[in-house]
Design a protein that fits this description.
disordered N terminus; globular; 9 helices; 2 domains; alpha+beta; 10-stranded antiparallel sheet; 450 residues; single chain; Anthranilate synthase
Length: 450
């Protein structure tokens, strides 16, 4: 994970900075590239889907935390920042004005620091409208439109060179070998058969050792183009393109996309119409795994809502590497006595970890994950995204991604939902299908399977 710049050290909760923020309307973005024309640096923060979203540069504040209360302490810090900030936002909507990017550790026991980062420059695009936000901790700084454009231009001058594959590139095993991980799956199935839990999500890692420095911006552009229906994210060295939305809050409405059930497209019969629908929808194992995931999310979200709707039956989400069973959930949030609805980060705290990335029940699954994986997940499968001063935000689950550990070492993660019918070899093959987006974006090849 990349280190913060000297000017962006973590700030204690009691010393939240006083920030100023001004947002300006801008012209239409290039139709063929959208926000991707701004993804030119390795330290860029991104949240992009179908060419729209948010790209940000620099840092004016950073808050780090860990432990079981990491979401609450981050929310308290952000609340103090917002309350003391001077925000000028003539036409506010979700994503304009003062904003922070965030990445949180998967586990409450993790030593990996969860973080909120307030950038200096934000370029946003939504429904054909684009804007530029300039944020500063300097009370005397010129926050005019011309100053904002000049600051943006300065960031865009430092373009990260593209990388070509070289002979030194290789994939190395992670913490567990394939055989060791399949043994962990077998042990997980045994626990399920003993009735200790219904579902367990087990992850594994592989490491890309590169012969030349990674081009993070190039990887992000590749992911955003190939996986346009996913949310391409980059926060402080955590990069990827997730198909799963943990929670999205726009004013009083919350939305989520739940995935469980996977089918590798590389093994599909050529030209067979309806193969994914028949195979996924007709699989008792896949349907059961999906039902556990959707029930987990709706049960945790319900106390915060006035009403909630979801698909009566999951649909098949088609991605370049896999098909998934997916369900979208929409909820109207309940206001408190003062008329305020819960912020996106409050809902993240309530929802994480879901059955889709941990298991059912989550307490038992979490303990088994620590016992069987032998892996520090860090930010993998944790919440990643952004939130604004009004509490709006988009938080995905950090899947189909990696951590850039050094300029030449990238650690990738993938996991599978384990139920009683799971077969270790099939689950191993599924992890390789989920590694594929990052492996290909790095210019490497997925190992051939027997």
């Amino acid at each position: 994970m990349s280190n913060p710049s000297p000017a962006a050290v973590a700030i204690p909760l009691s010393q939240a900075p006083t920030l100023r923020s001004v947002t300006f309307e801008r012209g239409d973005l290039q139709l063929n590239t959208g926000l991707l024309e701004y993804v030119v640096r390795g330290d860029v923060h991104t949240w992009i889907r179908r060419g729209e979203g948010i790209v940000a540069f620099g840092e004016v504040a950073r808050f780090t935390t860990d432990g079981p209360g990491r979401f609450q302490t981050a929310q308290e810090w952000w609340h103090s920042v917002v309350n003391s900030a001077d925000v000028v936002d003539p036409a506010p909507q979700p994503g304009t004005g003062l904003l922070a990017f965030g990445s949180f550790a998967f586990s409450k026991t993790s030593r990996h620091p969860s973080r909120l980062i307030v950038p200096q420059i934000v370029v946003g695009s939504r429904d054909g409208r684009s804007w530029l936000t300039y944020i500063s901790d300097d009370g005397d700084a010129d926050l005019s439109a011309s100053a904002a454009e000049a600051a943006l231009a300065a960031y865009l001058e430092e373009v990260e060179p593209e990388r070509k594959p070289c002979t030194g590139d290789r994939l190395a095993p992670g913490v567990l070998t394939e055989e060791q991980w399949m043994n962990a799956v077998s042990r997980g199935v045994a626990h399920i058969r003993e009735g200790e839990l219904s579902k367990l999500v087990l992850a594994r890692d592989v490491v890309a050792e590169l012969g030349s420095p990674v081009s993070t911006a190039q990887v992000l552009r590749e992911l955003a183009i190939r996986y346009s229906d996913c949310w391409t994210y980059s926060v402080d060295g955590l990069i990827g393109s997730t198909p799963e939305m943990l929670i999205k809050v726009e004013n009083r409405t919350a939305r989520a996309r739940v995935l469980a059930g996977t089918l590798d497209r590389s093994s599909a019969p050529a030209g067979e119409i309806g193969y994914a629908e028949r195979t996924l929808a007709g699989s008792e194992k896949q349907q059961y795994e999906h039902e556990l995931a959707i029930d987990s999310l709706t049960r945790q979200l319900e106390p915060f809502t006035q009403s909630m709707t979801s698909h009566s039956e999951p649909f098949v989400l088609e991605l370049p590497n896999v098909w998934h069973l997916a369900s979208d959930v929409t909820a109207e949030l309940s206001p408190d006595s003062e008329g305020n609805v819960p912020s996106s980060l409050v809902l993240v705290d309530a929802l994480h970890p879901t059955a889709a990335v941990c298991g059912t029940p989550t307490t038992v699954a979490g303990e088994l994950i620590r016992e069987l994986e032998h892996l520090e997940r860090g930010p993998y499968a944790g919440p990643v995204g952004w939130m604004d001063a009004q509490g709006n935000g988009e938080w995905g689950i950090a899947l189909r991604g990696a951590v850039v550990e050094t300029p030449t070492r990238v650690r990738m993660y993938a996991g599978c939902g384990i139920v009683e019918a799971s077969q270790p070899s099939a689950e191993l093959a599924e992890t390789w299908s989920k590694f594929r987006p990052m492996i290909e974006a790095l210019g490497l090849r997925t190992p051939s399977r027997p």
